[in-house]
Amino acid sequence: MTTAPAHDPTSPDARAYALDRAHVFHSWSAQGALDPMVIESGLGCHVWDHAGTRYLDFSSQLVNVNIGHQHPAVVAAIQEQAALLTTISPPTAHLARGEAAKRITDRAPDGMNKVFFTNGGADAIENAIRMARLHTGRDKVISRYRSYHGNTGSAIVATGDWRRVPNEFARGHVHAFGPYLYRSEFWATTPEEESERALTHLRRVIECEGPNGIAAVLLETIPGTAGVLMPPPGYLAGVRALCDVHGIVLILDEVMAGFGRTGEWFAFDGVDTDRGGVKPDLIAFAKGVNSGYVPVGGVVISDEIAADFDKTVFPGGLTYSGHPLAAASIVAALDAMESEGIVANAKRIGADVLGPGLRELADKHPIVGEVRGTGVFWAIELVADPATRAPVGAAVIGRAKKEMLARGLLPFAADNRIHAVPPCVVTDDEVAQALSIYDDVLTLLDEEL
Ligand code: PLP
């Protein structure tokens, strides 16, 4: 299924493959090595190729299809909006745009009442950083190693993985280590120690960088592509407190974690609730807000920061900010997620079905070093040696992907991990199918250890 369809060269799948290889330049890839899958259609938690082969989508594509593929209400809303008005410039007031902004701010913490719409997640981060710099009059942004924030000027330099290094042209960025108990940078042995020591490290970085020069701390609430790194108790509340002491803006990147993925509207809604919760100053969102049916992202802005721009011009904008098709799709997606209990489903699946099932696999298979996550946001970390925790190499992950595809499961792989990230609408049966496929493939991989 991952090789070029060899039969009729004029068939749509052969043509899709040939056109792709001839003319499409792909993200983050050596182009010559690519062998893309051809996908024609989707519904719910499944996608199909042209030959009718069905795959259970446990990737949600790039962890964005939270509502599932082709939700009829969202498709209809886009069609209806397209029939009425496909585009209108940002300075105009437009009903769908206002309704979308209201639905987002209704779910945000009190005192966050404005939304700046962007085209996707990276430019949401870009504009959040801009707002923080203008608000504080400071320059530096502290973000984390082991993070991804997007592929534009500041967002890619804020990123804490290999993708930053060839793109390092923006100034004012500093990185710190965050908590990751399984591979602790702080010799910690408990979540509490990891939390406390990661906070001490961040405090020291802030002090050494000069708090008066730091505009923002930018964190994915739960780092996603870096491995679904669950924040230990008190970490994010502690970051909030550090920011408060030094007048630093806290930007939470909810691009991947937000809008249902963790079983909450925002991932931070489920964090440190016993400590009064964590309220950011700026929230970057994209992906799950409309499941990527139309490209969109944005920043939810605190009233205090928004007020800066009541009389002063905000020096930023986009031709497609608040695009009507995107706005209509947000309204329909959030309404359907609410009325169909989709966020609650993600929470229940994580707590009762997917989480326990993955933990059983971790107990059974020596190749699984750790599973961690919440809702429909999980990582299965594969290790070549359970004692040293040495990660498996690319060949093992390549084999895992191939074997899962051959069994009809579309996986999400990153570094030495498989992420179990189905749409939030996933059913108990679909989770059971996926767990059984993971089990089969992990058994094969165990044998090769
Ligand atoms: N922030 C996070 C946490 C992400 O996972 C991503 C994309 O994967 C981005 C930002 C960038 O979003 P986009 O690809 O829509 O620009």
What does the model show?
Helices cover 39% and strands 16% of the residues. It is of the alpha/beta class and 449 residues long. The protein has two domains: 140 residues, Aspartate Aminotransferase, domain 1 (Alpha-Beta Complex), CATH 3.90.1150.10; 268 residues, Type I PLP-dependent aspartate aminotransferase-like (Major domain) (Aspartate Aminotransferase, domain 2), CATH 3.40.640. Helix 6 links the parallel strand 5 and strand 6. Helix 3 packs antiparallel against helix 10 and helix 11 packs parallel to helix 13. The longest helix has 23 residues. It binds pyridoxal-5'-phosphate. Pyridoxal-5'-phosphate (PLP) binds next to helix 5. Pyridoxal-5'-phosphate binds next to helix 5.
